[in-house]
TrEMBL record:
Subcellular location: Cell membrane
Predominant cellular place of this UniProt entry's protein: membrane
Domain Major facilitator superfamily (MFS) profile stretches: 1-404
GO cellular component, one term: plasma membrane
Transport as UniProt keyword: yes
Protein name, UniProt field: Putative MFS family arabinose efflux permease
PANTHER family: INTEGRAL MEMBRANE EFFLUX PROTEIN-RELATED, MAJOR FACILITATOR SUPERFAMILY ASSOCIATED DOMAIN-CONTAINING PROTEIN
GO molecular function: transmembrane transporter activity
Length: 419
């Protein structure tokens, strides 16, 4: 339940509604866009890896610059325009399909442009909460927002998979566009005044980027978040690329069954979000991060051991995804709270962008690696390799300063004297 102060914060509620709609759009797209390639266009594993890389590579190209812009602009404006743009760009796929002009080249172009605006939205979103709530409300606020993402993980894939079966993959893309449009409308109604860091003539873009890089490099916890998240994102991107080939082709699951199994992430993530709001205060952030990451990543080893498309396989996939959702989401929320708490307010955008650059920037390389492994090995063997690679993330976390974080997180240096 929302704390009374957050119930009264109308701008937080508008962010909550907009972020929920945006997450539904993103989660539906996680199913529909790859299925357009695989089902409608007959893409092979290598092409699917390239498609996912096209959508992810803007993180590597643009994150650091977007971080500077977010700190200088209103985050509301960035998020609103980004989701409006994603809605418009996605509509090119069903329109081209109805005109008989849909091809791989257009699909790649749409994936890339959507990726560009996803970078803009994600960096702004990661800097938005700390500007709308007090720091002592960050854990609750982050838990609530991540709970919305969990609900989207329940409904988004199920909706996307269902629409693919009912209509077709290209027409199912419309659902994502509608959700992005709703998000843009809700976020545009946020009215809280912001004081962006415009800087002066000597405070140029490159200098601003260096500031963000320097803060992450100097702080042991932020530096470790970047390294460990990078390992995870590379391995998980490779895993998911193979996974999206493994489910329809090796296990021969239908679009609806794929949506159902992926939707199981949602209830797990919802529970994980709730746990993230309470467990660190009882056990400490370090133990929760290490144990959560180890359990979540170990669960995925079960996927390549499955055979057939029967009810038992689907139930086991649901159980695996649920477990991954619970503990993966617990880790995600805790990492966000750690980053937002120890980062100065005026550097939130740049720090978020720097970590995204260092971590999500490895995702396109991971996707290409996953496509290569699936093309040159059996999907089952490739899945097992990438699942084992995921375990290196909690191993490194155990040896890092993050494992020693307690129940209370340190404030930024300039705020410690006022606390």
């Amino acid at each position: 339940m929302l704390p009374s102060s957050l119930w009264r914060n109308r701008d937080f509620l508008k962010l909550w509604v907009g972020q929920t709609a945006s997450q539904f759009g993103s989660q539906a797209g996680q199913v529909t866009l790859p299925l357009v390639a695989v089902v409608a266009l007959g893409a092979e594993a290598g092409q699917l890896g390239e498609l996912r890389a096209a959508q992810q590579i803007p993180v590597l190209l643009l994150s650091l610059f977007v971080g500077v812009w977010v700190d200088r602009w209103r985050v509301r404006t960035v998020m609103m325009l980004a989701d409006l743009a994603r809605a418009l760009v996605l509509m090119a796929i069903p329109i081209a399909y109805l005109l008989g002009a849909l091809g791989v080249a257009l699909l790649f172009a749409v994936a890339f442009v959507v990726g560009v605006f996803t970078v803009c939205f994600d960096v702004a979103y990661q800097a938005s909460l700390v500007r709308l709530v007090d720091r002592d409300e960050l854990a609750q606020g982050a838990s609530i927002l991540e709970s919305s993402r969990s609900l989207a993980q329940i409904g988004g894939p199920a909706l996307g998979g269902g629409l693919v079966s009912l209509l077709s993959a290209p027409l199912a893309i419309i659902s994502g566009a509608v959700f992005f449009a709703l998000s843009s409308i809700s976020i545009s109604r946020i009215h809280r005044s912001e004081v962006p860091d415009h800087g002066g003539p000597a405070h140029g873009v490159l200098r601003s980027i260096r500031q963000g890089l320097s803060v992450v490099a100097r702080d042991p916890s932020l530096r470790t978040v970047g390294v460990i998240s990078g390992i995870f994102q590379f391995s998980f991107a490779a895993f998911m690329t193979i996974y999206l080939v493994f489910l329809p082709r090796t296990l021969e699951l239908s679009g609806a069954a794929i949506g159902l199994t992926l939707a199981a992430l949602g209830p797990g993530a919802l529970l994980g979000s709730l746990l993230a709001a309470t467990l660190p205060r009882r056990l400490g952030y370090g133990p929760v991060l290490v144990a959560g990451a180890a359990i979540a990543d170990a669960a995925l080893i079960g996927v390549p051991l499955l055979h057939g498309s029967g009810a038992v396989t689907i139930v086991l996939l649901v159980a695996i995804n649920f477990t991954f959702g619970v503990f993966g989401q617990t880790v995600d929320v805790c990492v966000v709270v750690v980053r937002q708490t120890i980062t100065p307010l005026h550097l939130q955008g740049r720090v978020a962008a720097t970590i995204n650059f260092a971590t999500l920037g490895l995702a396109p390389i991971g996707s290409l690696t996953g496509g290569y492994l699936a093309a040159h090995l059996t999907p089952r063997t490739a899945l097992l390799i990438t699942a084992l690679a995921l375990l290196s993330s909690p191993t490194c976390m155990l040896l890092s300063p993050l494992s020693r974080l307690g129940r209370t997180l340190p404030l930024p240096p300039e705020e410690r004297g006022r606390a």
